[in-house]
Design brief:
With about 325 residues, the chain is an alpha+beta fold. About 35% of the residues lie in helices and about 20% in strands. It is built from ten helices and 14 strands. The strands form four sheets. An eight-stranded mixed beta sheet has the order 5-7-8-9-14-13-12-11. It has a two-stranded antiparallel sheet with strand order 1-2. A two-stranded parallel ribbon has the order 3-10. This is Zinc-finger domain-containing protein.
Length: about 325
């Protein structure tokens, strides 16, 4: 037999109506355990209804007011270390041991401890009223700011996407963007200003290629940038080349799983051969180059990328934290 369960409480409260109430009453008439539980539930409700409120003590208000009385703990406004005429007894005139603590002599609200008022001779100097020194507040504020900048300056691990389909899509977009550009001849200077395409933003160019100067034979055709990330599309001797720069630290596990080669001053990690996709750590950012295949022209591009030392010191980390704060508040 299935018992009423939680319907016992609803039946006792009168919340069951109609056919549901009739079915519950029929079940109680035939089920002893449910009938006993219903009687106990109704008895408990009757006992609670008959219970009277607990009346507070007559002197409750007086005692609450006494706890909040300012006379129980007066603030000592005398200078620290200064003599107090009303509490500092003369030499030899203090209370005798055994008479100093007068518990029970007076009510707590106006009692004396050792013959002096609480907060007077016992708490000499008024410790409760002593303000926090401004120097302490300043030191704590500077310390909090330093810790905050240190935490904000931490760089996250970066694992560049090396799927061939994604790389081919980037190269195709870069190739279509460079259809109307003018190539730089090999007879020109080895340092060429990179702002040549109409879709090139100088700020994004600087973010993707520090200094904004490309090696011989390459032309910037488009740029894309977002928070902590920049992309530069190039047109060069081997066609379209994509350069990406992302703030962060190259994932150590990823770097250990792929082959590496030294090109110029960079230790380059090759993520794929076709299309050729290589990445390396440059300062506090991860730089990647995507080309259709590796060639001498691509190696020259990688070698010409400005080399930045990796600085994991405290000062560098705080500097990155400050740049994060400034970037967050910048319009």
């Amino acid at each position: 037999m299935t018992h009423l369960g939680t319907q016992i409480s609803a039946l006792a409260d009168g919340r069951l109506t109609g056919a549901a109430r009739e079915r519950a009453l029929c079940h109680v008439a035939a089920c002893g355990p449910c009938a006993e539980e219903l009687r106990a539930t109704r008895a408990a409700r009757e006992a609670l209804a008959a219970a009277a409120d607990v009346a507070p003590a007559p002197d409750l208000a007086f005692r609450l007011l006494a706890l909040g009385s300012t006379d129980a703990c007066p603030i000592d406004t005398a200078p620290r270390g200064a003599a107090r005429a009303d509490t500092a007894p003369a030499l030899g005139g203090g209370p005798v041991l055994g008479d100093a603590v007068g518990f029970g002599a007076e009510p707590f609200g106006g009692g004396r401890l050792g013959g002096g008022r609480l907060g007077g001779s016992v708490l000499a100097g008024g410790a409760g009223a002593r303000p926090v020194p401004v120097r302490t507040v300043a030191v704590l504020g500077v310390g909090a700011a330093v810790v905050g900048l240190f935490l904000l300056g931490d760089v996250r691990d970066v694992s560049p996407d090396s799927h061939p389909a994604a790389d081919l899509a980037l190269l195709a977009a870069a190739g279509s963007a460079g259809g109307g550009t003018v190539a730089v001849s090999a007879a020109e200077s080895t340092t060429v200003p990179a702002v040549t395409g109409t879709d090139v933003d100088p700020g994004a160019l600087e973010a993707a290629w520090p200094g904004g100067v490309l090696p011989e034979g390459y032309t910037a055709v488009a740029t894309h940038a977002d928070a902590g990330w920049a992309e530069l599309d190039l047109d060069g001797p081997v066609g379209a080349v994509v350069v990406q720069r992302q703030a962060g630290h190259l994932d150590d596990d990823l770097a250990a799983q792929v082959p590496s080669v030294t090109i110029g001053d960079h230790e380059v990690h090759v993520l794929s051969d076709v299309p050729w996709h290589a990445v390396w750590q440059s300062g506090d950012a991860v730089v990647g180059v995507i080309a259709a295949h590796r060639s001498r022209a691509v190696d020259a591009l990688v070698a010409a990328y400005p080399h930045e030392q990796v600085d994991g010191g405290i000062a560098a980390r705080m500097s990155r934290g400050w740049q994060t704060v400034v970037g967050a508040w910048a319009p």
